[in-house]
Amino acid sequence: IPGVPDPSVPPSGVSCSGCGAELQCADGGAPGFVPAEKYRSLVSEGTAGLRGAVCQRCWALAHHGRALRLQLPPDEHRRVVSAALRRPPRHGRGPLLLYVLDVLELPDPVLPQVPALLGPGVPASGVLVVGNKVDLLPADAPGHLRRLRMSVAEACARAGLAGAALVDIRLVSAKTGFGIEGLVSRLQRSWKCAGDVYLLGATNSGKSTLFNTLLRSDYCKSRAPDIVDRATVSPWPGTTLNLLKFPIINPTCDRIFRRQERLKEEATKTEDELSSEEKNYLNHLKKQGYLVGEVGRTFQRQKASPVVDFDPDMLSYSIDEDPQQSPKKREEREEFTLNEVKDARWCFDTPGIVKEDCVLNLLTEKEVKLVLPTVAIVPRTFILKPGTALFLAALGRIDYLQGEKSAWFSVVASNLLPVHITTLSNADTIYEKHAGHELLKVPMGGEERMKEFPPLVPQDITLKGIGTTEAVADIKLSSAGWVAVTAHAEEELLLRAYTPKGTTVVVREPPLLPYISSVRGSRIAGTAAYRTKKPPSLVENLKTTGSS
Q1: Is residue 293 part of a domain?
Q2: Which residues form a coiled coil (predicted)?
């Protein structure tokens, strides 16, 4: 239950350790809200009481996966990010932008805004683009990561990011750790030519998850992970409301050497040599994604000793933007002194930039959880004749209007979203009868919900097949998922794709996973469907044994 506000109480000046918003109890709809009664009890303990506290929104996200509605328009997100990037350069160098892109969302709708965010007043050291969530996509054929990287590079070029402005492209999974050690090594090589680092990206790109993963890696100062409260990770759009940060470790020659030694040693281990705890965690990750990597730490925090030696990497961390000398030090939560941080470089998480024309903006928290894939996607392939319609929940529909032969339609979307095949003549009736109900699942809430939900609007698409093993295009149904279409060579298909009014259908040519229709089992007799097939998971930075 949302708590009671008290408009007479001024804001605290202390940031929420989940989202970075200033804690306050005056306005229940604004960022950083804490119910008045709870707020007073925290304030009664002095500033120390509020340190480490989270706002009601972060608490609800962390404990219930619920997001309280917030009044924060997209322009406000952009303003916060833009203002941060326009700060005077520190260390005589501009910031390095770490742009996090969800590979499932290619072409990324927010990427073209990055050059404008930088603007003429921002002396940036360049943009390093991180293609995230690669663990969710099955390998459709050998070389699929190379093809994915090329797709990201093409999206960057179209958005006006190329040449010296584009530092590198990395493919990772912030969730399973795949590619993270390589990203850390690449970031450490940028130390000399960049100042602070800013994580940018659209909402739900996995930016906060990457922030949390880097916080537990060799990229972060050795003691900071024990002090910094990790960003609230949640699928609800726009959860990081202000700037959270952690201090970056200085990659001295000695540290780089020690790190390389650790990585070399780990690469000689096989899965059998891991401890039972490590094995269990690895098996858990393998169930989650197709690509898995271990993220280790070379520089562990030393145990506290009565003698305090000055070491900049043993410093704790304050979430405040400007470190203050605290007159009364609390042992369990020290603050940086100004002297200690004057040369520190910081890694900032920023608010997610809201995607406009996106179906997720129309959905409730419960619906978003069903639509956003969080585990390895199992593709579902159907062979359809002209005169057939395919529904992806009640969020997208593709009609096969004209063509000489059957074609293959491979659905790449959350495993929790139902796919329903019907005849064209029956399709409208199915939607009217079942949208809002169990058969189509999302949206949920029956006729009442569908009254307020925008109607599906059509867009005609013509495709020419290139052969029965390679898809010609993906039809991306906003952020609900996509359908890869595979047809006989030279075969012309007339299709009609529908998404809710105000959202966008994208025809992606070439497709992201061109050979996806081959990731299937045998045809299920009497139906249009094939049995599904889940390819095995791959673990990087471990020595492979005979078994997969």
Answers
A1: no
A2: 253-280
Q: Are residues 151 and 30 both part of a single domain?
A: no
Residue-wise pLDDT tens digits, 510-537: 999 999 999 999 999 999 999 999 988 8
Q: Which of 306, 324, 356 is the last residue of a domain?
A: 356
Residue range(s) defining the domain that contains residue 10: 1-70
Are 34 and 130 within one domain? no
The residue among 121, 115, 125 whose CA lies nearest residue 91 is 125
Instruction: Check whether residue 250 and residue 379 sit in a common domain.
Output: no
pLDDT one-digit tens code per residue, 401-415:
999 999 999 999 999
Pairing of the two strands 197-201 and 482-486:
unpaired
Nearest Cα residue to 485 out of 476, 499, 477, 475 = 475
Spatial CB neighbours of 243, under 8 Å, sequence gap ≥ 6: 20, 80, 84, 321, 348, 349, 350
Say which range, 2-16, 22-36, 217-231, 477-491, has the weakest mean pLDDT. 217-231
**pLDDT value of residue 219:** 79
pLDDT at 318 over 50: no
**Contact of 242 with 19, CB cutoff 8 Å:** yes
Mean per-residue pLDDT, 237-246:
59
In whole angstroms, what is the distance from residue 343 CA to residue 391 CA?
56
Cβ atoms of 456 and 397 closer than 8 Å = yes
Residues 495, 499, 501, 503: is their CA dihedral positive or negative? negative
CA dihedral over 31, 34, 35, 36, signed as positive or negative: negative
400-424 burial, b at 16+ Cβ within 10 Å, e below that, comes to bbebeebbbbbbbbbeebbbbbbee
Q: Decide which of 70, 91, 116 is a domain's last residue.
A: 70
